[in-house]
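job 3f2a | input accepted
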Amino acid sequence: MDEKDTSLSSSPPLAAQLPPSADDGIGDNNKYDYVCYSCSKPDPSLTCVACKVARYCSKECQKRDWSCKNGGGYHKLNCPFMKSLTREGKMDEVGKRGVVDTVVRKCKLYISPFFVNNVIRASKASAASASDTPTAGYFVFLQSPDTIIMHGMPGQGRRDHLGPTLPSRSGSRQVMLKFMKYEETKELVKDDFELSSLLPSLLSSVSPGERQEKIPLLVRFRCGFVGVADAEIALGWDTCERLGWEGNDEVLFNIDDC
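job 3f2a | predicted structure (258 res):
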């Protein structure tokens, strides 16, 4: 997978639903102070010895959060993942690739029939229109209003390195899918050199015909991370075609329900 970290200056239709991009892996949560991972008191002074990221205001809160008792227990689940983060909550490139792979794997049963049936419809529409310019190929633009770190956290819910109860952390993590022609990327990357540098990788993945073996993906998270990836078509092309897709070329769903 190829990736860049950038904030997009030009947005496709679904991006209107996305909050502004921000720092690498962190998103706009960096406007909040750190809080205790157990009770949410501000300015916690203790740090988990194992991951050196999670913070607590007291030993009691640290024990409660680790022991899975009295409303705690989040950190026992999240500590192994947090070891891959810096103290500032940033993630290295290997970690980011792993999170993208996990998100794509969880979404494959949604993405596959969505992509297959949109390709079939787009191909038929193109064949029926003599004025329609042939396309270089199709892909799925996968976006999320959540940061890459939130998607990396085990379990469900919107959590990251800052603590468990910040205002932006309510609800499930979401993913938005947009079916696109490669030619539509011209407007998408307008005035954005970093994103445009990903287009050669995307172009090498797309195909103008039907019955493709893989789904080309352009991925973007709230924090500004963008990358190119691909996914095997789950269940096979024929099965996905039989399943059908009654929706349009855009869809939003909760990834925690997958």
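job 3f2a | The two ends are 23 Å apart (CA to CA).
job 3f2a | closed
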